[in-house]
Amino acid sequence: MRTIILHRWMDDIRGAIIENDKVVEWLFDSPFEGPEPGTVIRGKVTDILPGMDAAFVDIGSDKNGFLYKKELVEYQAMIENNVTTKVPSIRSLVTKGQWLNVQVKKEEVGTKGAKLTELLSFPGKYIVYLPEGNYVAVSKKMSSEDIRDNWRERVRHWLQEKEGIILRTLAEDVDPEKVHFEFKRLREQYKALVSKATDNKVSTLYNESSILARVTRDFLSDEENVIVVDDLKDYQYINQQLSDDHSAKVQLHQEKENVFSFYDLDKALEKSLNPFVWLKNGGSLHIDHTEAMTVIDVNSSKFTGKQGLRETALTINLQAAKTIAEQLRLRDIGGIIVIDFIDMHADKDRMEVVEQLKSALQKDRTMTNVLGFTQLGLLEMTRKKTRKPLLEMTHTSCPLCNGMGEVKRDEEIAREIEEMLFTLRYREEEAFLVEVEQRVHKLFSGHYKQRLSMLEKSIGKDIYLISVQEQQYAIRFMGSREEVRKRWEARLEVK
To answer: Which CATH class is domain 2-29+210-267?
Structure first.
C-alpha cells in the first residue's frame, strides 16, 4: 500500500510518498524561482548567439531561457529530411524579436537560465504526446518485441501530419481504447494551448508540472493508493480527475494540526536533509553536494564484522548500494554522482555491488545510468536532473561562510513561522510579539506583507514582528492587542 500525503500552506504545496510506513519520495513545488520543467511559455527571442548555436528567450523570469538550435522544430525537420549539405546557422532559423512557444526542459539553476525546447511534449499515464515529434517509440520494457511491433502498427493510424508518440510500459496490458482516449485528450490539450498563443506577450500557456497534476497523473489509477490532502479545493480537484479507471482512495484531513505534523513528517524531512546517513549494519554514508556533482562517501563506522577485510568491505558496500538508491530518490539528487565505496580489489565483488545498485534503482521513477567503477575505484553514475534537489528547495548557501555551507532559505523560515502561529489560532490571546531574523523580517515587510495580513485575518490575531540579529525565531509575548502593541513599541524605541 502506498500513501501520498499533500499539505498546502497558502500558495505552497508539498507532499510525501509513503511506502511500508517509510517516506520514499518528497514532492515539492518551488515557488521561489523560475518556471518548472514541462511548463509551456509564449516567449520572445531577445538575443542570438551564433557562436553557441543558441538564442536567449524572455520567458517572464528573472533570467532569460536558453534555446539551442537543435531544439528548434525547423532544424529537426531539416535533419529528418536529410537537408544536411549545409548546416544552417541559427540566425537563419530564428530572429531577434520573434515569438515562440517553448517548453522548459530544465529549470534555471544559479546564474544559468532555464533550458528550453520548441519540441513540445505532453506526458500522460500511458503515452507521451509529441505534436511535432514525427516518430513512434515504444518502451523497451514491454515483455516482447511482437507486442512492441503491434503497438507501433496500431498507434501509427492515430497520428496526423507531424505528430509523434511514445508508448509507456504501462500501456502494454491496457485496453487500446483507453490509450487512444488519452492520446485524443492530450491532442486536444495541445490544440487549446495553441489557441491561447495568439497574443504576443510573455505568458504561461500550459503547466502540468505541479504536484497536484503529477499526483493525479501517476497515482490515481491504483486502488492500493491512498491520497490524503488537507485543503478542500485540492480534495475537490483530485476527485474531479477520478474516472472509471481511477480507483485510488482520496481522503480529506480535517484534524486541528496540519497533515505533515499529524504524520510526523517534519522530523522525517529534517532527517532527509542531513548529509550523514546510518546504514542498517552500522556503516554510514556522507553525502556532499557541489555545483558539478554529488559525492557520496561510504564508511565502515560502527560495523563490527567477524570475517576478513574483503567480506567486511563487501557487506558494507552492498548495504550502502541499496541505501544510496533510496537516498537518491528521497532527496531527488540528479546529475553526475560519484560514489566512494570501501575499497574492493576483486572484480567479482565490484560487479556484485554494481548489480545491487542497479537492482535497487529499479524502484526509482527517474531515469538512472550506472557507468561502473573508474580506475581510481570510484563508481560513476547519473540520474536525470530536471528539478532542484530537496536540499536546494529548502536551503541556500550560507552568507557567513561564502557558500561553504547551507542555511535554510528565508522563505522556508517564514513558512515555519506562519505555520507555528497558525497552530496557536485557538488560544485566547489577541496578539503575538515575535522575534525574527533580520532578513526574514525584511521578507515579511516586503514580498510577504500580504501573506502576513492574510495570516492575521485567518487566525484572528494581530502579529507584531521584531527584527533581531540571531538566526532564529521565537514568540516573546502573547496577550491583549494593547499589551502586545505597547511592548512592540517599547522594543522599537530601544532599538
So the answer is: alpha beta
Inter-residue contact 417 to 428 (CB < 8 Å): no
Q: State pTM to two decimals.
A: 0.74
Residue 401's pLDDT is 65
452/384 Cα distance (integer angstroms): 38
Task: Tell me the H-state helices in 81-129.
Answer: none
Residue that has been written with the C-alpha cell 523497451 in this structure:
140
Report how far apart, in Å, the C-alpha atoms of 257 and of each of 7, 12, 134, 229, 419 are.
11, 17, 51, 13, 10
What are the pLDDT digits (tens) for 106-159? 888 767 888 999 999 998 888 999 999 888 999 888 888 999 999 999 999 999
Its CATH class, for the domain covering 409-494, is alpha beta
User: 232-241 and 211-219 helices cross at what angle (nearest 10)?
Assistant: 40
Residue pair 60/213 in contact by the 8 Å Cβ criterion = no
The CATH class of the 274-383 domain is alpha beta
Nearest to 304 by CA among 292, 296, 312: 312
**Stretch 253-270: mean pLDDT, rounded?**
90
Domain ranges within the chain, ordered by starting residue: 2-29+210-267, 120-203, 274-383, 409-494
